[in-house]
Structure formats: C-alpha cells, structure tokens
Amino acid sequence: MTIATAAFVAGVQVCAGQTPAKQSPDAAPSQPSMLDRLNQMMAGGKSAWTAEQLDTMGRLRDAAMKSDYAYDELRHLTNNIGPRLSGSPQAEKAVEYVAGEMRALGAEVTLEKASVPHWVRGVETGALTAWPGQAAGTTQKIVLTALGGSVATPPEGLIAEVVVVDNWEQLHALPTGAAKGKILLFNHPFDKELAATGHGLEAYGNAVAYRGAGPIAGAAVGAVAVLVRSVGGADFRLPHTGQTEYAPDVPKIPAAAVTAEDAELLKALTSQGPVTMHLTLTPQTLPDADSYNVIADWKGTEHPEQVVVVSGHLDSWDLGTGAIDDGAGVAVSMQAIQLMKELGIHPRRTVRVIAWMSEEEGSEGAAAYMVKHAAEMGNHVGAIESDLGADHPTGIFYAGKPELGRWLRPVAQVLDANGAGSLESAPETGEDIAGMTEKGVPSFAPVQDSRFYFNYHHTAADTFDKIDQKHLNENAAIMAVLAYALADSPEPATR
Hints:
With 495 residues, the protein is of the alpha/beta class. It is built from 16 helices and 16 strands.
C-alpha cells in the first residue's frame, strides 16, 4: 500500500466511518482520481454550511474553551447537591436547580413527569467467619456494596458457605446442588488491558453481564445470595455498584459487588477448603416516586417545531457524587444554551437541552419522553447524549446512514483544533436517546477517552476532583458546535 493510498483509506475510516460504496457492475466507471479524493478530504468536500456558519461554530468552540460555566455548574451539582439517586431528595433538588439555571438563561423550561424507582441503600457488611488457616476467634472483613435494586438479607444477615466461579461455563459445570444454600461469587475480571487501549466500553460490556444476570443465574441453582466482582479497573478496594436484574420465574436473592481484591481472596481461600461468610444487606425498595426530566428549549427562529436534543442524565448512583456519571454530561449540555446566549446565536431549529432522570435504574425518564413525544419524532432532527465521562474527546460518534459521516465532515474539521476531529459510526450513541435512534432520528455522542472512566464509574470515587476543566470544556465544545450545526443547517441531517 502506498503512502497516499494509506492516508486516504485511514482518512475515510476515521472521518466517515465507512468505506466507499461499491459501484454496480453495469455502472460506468466514475471514480475520482486519488488527488481529487485527497483534495476533498483536505477541503471537507461540499459543505452543508456556509462560511459564516462554520465561523460561528469556531466561535462556539473557542468560547467553550475559555468558559467556566460547565465547570461551575458541575461543581454545584456534585459538591453542593451531592449523590442524585432517583427518588431521593437530592434528585429532586437537582431538578429544581437545573430548571432554575436554564430559566435564568432565557430558555423555555418544562418539567416532564416520570415515575421512577425509589430504592434506598441500607447497611451492607461482609465478613468471613471460617476459612482455612484462620486464627481462632477472628473474622476477616470483605469490602462490598449492594447492587442497585437488590433485595435484603434478613436484618441479622445470613451465614453461608461461599462458592466461586469465574464465568458462566464454570457455573454450568458445577455438580448439581453444589451452590444450593450457598453464597455464589462470580469472579469475572474487568479487562484492564483492553480498557488501556481505549476500549473501556468493550471491557465493561464483557464483565457487566455478570452484574446484571448474576442474581438470576444464582437463584436458578439454589444460591441464597450472589456476589459479583466489581466491574471496573481500579484495584483500590473500591466496590462498584450498578443496577441488577431479577426474573419473574426465579426467587429474588440478595446481590452485592465485592472489590477485585476480595474476589481474589475468596477464590484463593475457597481453593484451599470451605469458606463461610456473614453477609448483611438491608436495602429497601419503596413505592415508585414522581420525578421529572428537565427540558429547556432555546427556540428556533424558522422551524421552532423541529428539535435537536442535547442531553445527559441527572440521576447518579449514591456512593459518590456523580461527577463523571453523569453530572458532566448535564453540565456540558446546559452550556450549549449558555454559549448561544452569550454569543447571541439563534439557530433555525430549537435546541432542546434535556437532563434525563433515572437512567441508572431503567431509563424511566427516557421512556416517559418517548411516550409523550411519540407523535413528534418526525420533527426530532437530531439527538446528542454525553454519558461517558469528561476525559479528552477525540470526535463524534454517529448512528445513522453512512452519508451522515460525510455530511458531518466540515463540523469535524472545526473541532479538529481541539483534537476532536474524528467521526465514528456506531449502532447507538446513548441509553436515553436509544428510543429516538430506533425511530430513525440521527443520534450522536462525543467519542471520549475511556481508558480511566471505569476506574471511578459507579464507585465512591466518582467525585468532582476527577474533572479536568480543559477536557470538560472540550466536551462542551463538541456539544455546542454539533447542536448548532444540526439546528442551523439548511436541510436537516439525513434520516
């Protein structure tokens, strides 16, 4: 492969996320020359936006990089309001706060009701009571945390022998009855090497199935409780929470995540002989609560009925303060409107900032939105969600037709000044906007550095100090530039 050809192929893959379409055998050859293609790459091809609009995108980008707005908003959401588990007083306070901030900017604000889970974490303790080599009269602490939605043990806890398996195959290979009446641990490690190459989402996806389905699988073989190895990359004895699932045809059993270190300890000790644990979890599942998606509209000048959604989710888990998951996504979405006000920008279409509620526990806020706005999906011309932290972004994920990547190339060139000029095709771009993607709405997300995200995700370490303001501003620049591009293009993005 020549240098020129390699450059072209790499450029197409990165900038468009696609290879060129194959010509029909009967079609007359009409391939442009290599020079023409390289020139097109450098110039961005024919742009859907005027030079003036591209200049406006540049002004949005530069203003985002100089601003303290997203950083200050995120500091308040995390340090002042704190954890925002759906149904909690903090979640209610966060709704009021974001709505007030958006009204202060002059946006038209609506609170749209959603019924959300109200699960409350209680006491959570684990201790080994018997193991090989134990000193008489001692116990050994196990660091753990209840999984979201878990049922409780008896108030005094339960004591049972521990059985360890690494994966589904080892579970299926257990002798019949081997897990009955016992605590079953899934010791499936998070692939830190995969995450270190920038594939944190893939590493997470490989491991999170055990958190989601572990209690169902454990109950099916008669276990009295399930433990899962924490789904994350930081081995600092940090337990990682997250939602788990139950099935209607199997008993609900208590479920918790243990740290990677304690999972390895249990594996080592059970390989030597019987190990017994005292496990206490006292969470409560209260009646569903009323909560709200915060919707803030920056009205379009020509087609106010056409909407570009810019969003993050306002709820968080309760161990930390939800800085990277996903206070950052809310703050950079809010800044899209703040920058447009600051620069006096009013695009053709409405930019709609949404702070979603209850993404962590089932995306009830997103489901309620899809019901309420079902008839309006044809007027949703784009949807953006930021929900992968606030590290350095390298570009834009897009879900839609192949030509969407080529159409966005001039926007990517604007963002290239921040090192965020890549365009990558993806099947979906965010949990809360997945319903819109399924309805054909072009959807987008920042491509974020995921090497470190899962060190803190869903742990007590998800706090404001993890935020690098420069990186946060780079994410805000993507949200604002892309929102404006979608909202002010002469024709909507292709569906």
